[in-house]
Design brief:
Blueprint (H helix, E strand, L loop, with lengths): L5 H31 L15 E2 L20 E5 L4 E10 L5 E8 L2 E10 L2 E12 L8 H6 L12 E8 L1 E3 L8 E12 L2 E14 L2 E11 L9 E2 L3 E17 L1
Parallel strand pairs: 1-9
Antiparallel strand pairs: 2-5, 2-13, 3-4, 3-13, 5-6, 6-7, 6-8, 7-9, 9-10, 10-11, 11-13, 12-13
Length: 250
């Protein structure tokens, strides 16, 4: 048996102790992250439904137009109560279960142009900016990390959407009913613009227009890499961008 010099023995012991200490720190971080403080994620955005119509409809149930809809034409701007953010599936390496990680912000600006015709309510233009560097979740550790990895919000602080294809909502939307439409536009996330089409719910109630929807995509579609923290905390291969907008006539 070959005996190591005392100095080499101490050095080897220090390396082993350091590696073990680092592993313990990461493990404790992961346990605190997932077990001690379990995630309590908000539900996806969805408008409350009293009655849902497809975009093929063009008149309300009684065939009349509401008084509120007569002044629909013009610019509508984002107001208080709007939110946007992300939803991803997180997993701890040694636990089988996954959970939703959700971060949201109310720092949204933008506007849409509406017109009124016999066919319904036309949305001819729209653009929105979201300050993704203000996203908050239920964990400050997660919020700090997305500034550096995944979304890299310190490097790309704003995400945008610009409508590229006008569409028409049925007249029933002006009666307070929830209606659905396919919306096509360019999302610019992580400095990468991509044209996407997604389903969106709308409701025009009095002087407020509401819109809610989501877009799920592979991280690579917007030039991102799925985040991983020390190999213990990781997320699945897809992310979801979700929003709930409230607009009022300017």
């Amino acid at each position: 048996m070959i005996k190591l010099p005392r100095r080499e023995h101490r050095k080897r012991f220090a390396l082993i102790a350091g590696a073990a200490g680092l592993a313990v720190i990461v493990l404790v971080f992961a346990l605190v992250y997932f077990v001690v403080f379990p995630t309590s994620s908000p539900k996806p955005f969805k408008l409350s439904v009293t009655e849902t119509h497809s975009v093929a409809s063009s008149t309300s149930a009684n065939g009349t137009e509401s008084d509120a809809s007569s002044a629909v034409g013009g610019q509508w701007r984002v107001v208080s109560g709007s939110q946007a953010g992300y939803r991803v599936r997180e997993k701890l390496a040694f636990l089988p279960a996954e959970s939703d990680a959700v971060g949201r912000t109310s720092q949204i600006t933008g506007a849409a142009s509406l017109t009124r015709s016999q066919a319904g309510i036309g949305i001819t233009a729209a653009s929105f900016d979201v300050a993704v560097n203000t996203l908050k979740s239920d964990r400050s550790m997660r919020d700090e990390k997305i500034h550096e990895i995944g979304l890299e919000s310190s490097r790309y602080p704003t995400a945008t959407f610009v409508l590229s294809k006008p569409f028409t909502l049925p007249a029933s939307a002006s009666a307070g009913h929830v209606v659905s439409a396919s919306v096509t536009g360019v999302f610019d996330i992580h400095g990468t613009p991509k044209r996407e089409t997604l389903p969106v719910e709308f409701r025009l109630s009095g002087a407020t227009l509401q819109a809610a929807g989501s877009l799920t995509f592979p991280w690579s579609e917007f030039g991102m890499t799925a985040p991983s923290i020390g190999g213990f905390v990781s997320v699945t291969g897809k992310a979801t961008m979700e929003f709930s907008l409230r607009l009022r006539r300017a």
